[in-house]
Amino acid sequence: MIFNLFNFFRKALNVILMASAKKHFVSCGKSVKFFPLNSSFSYKTISVGDCVYIGPNANFNASNYAKIILGNKIMFGPGVHISCGNHNFSTIGKYMYDVHEKLPDDDKTVTIEDDVWIGSNAIILKGVTIGRGAVIGAGAVVTKDVPKYAVVGGIPAKVIKFRFTEEKIQKHEKELKNNVLQK
Predict the structure, then answer these.
(1) How far apart are CA 117 and CA 32, in angstroms?
(2) Catalytic residue among 24, 81, 87, 100, which?
(3) I need a labelling partner for 131 at 20 to 30 A (CA). Which of 24, 110, 143, 153 fits?
(4) pLDDT tens-place string over residues 54-85
């Protein structure tokens, strides 16, 4: 009984915090759901499209030198991490801890295009673009761009297969376009 009551209040608090937090993103589309109570977001560097679900325990962080750009109809499993930055570890004569200057390649934007599914505990590193329709396997570490409609997994993530043949991709995209036009 007490556990059920605790869960009720935790869910209610998350809904309230989510409604308040959405305005802190650079932009935030319609039908966006995430869990600010147990996640970490650098709100001022993140743009979110429509119909995006971000599972609990997410960690999306970018410095002021990079952005996180999320398209439409994206699903994130729990525990996904996006990191757009790196430390400058090339300065001679200083401990890395004491180096605060950034190099041009230290921070880079991450872009995730429409219709992407990212499995739980995946890690997406700086400068990556994940193409439309891609699937990222649970626990994958994405260090390079992912082609559209690719299914990737592993450490570092590699293409395992493609969701569709090129012919089926064209048919899929045509039907998606027709569905949007009919609405």
Answers:
(1) 15
(2) 87
(3) 24
(4) 999 999 999 888 999 999 999 999 999 999 98
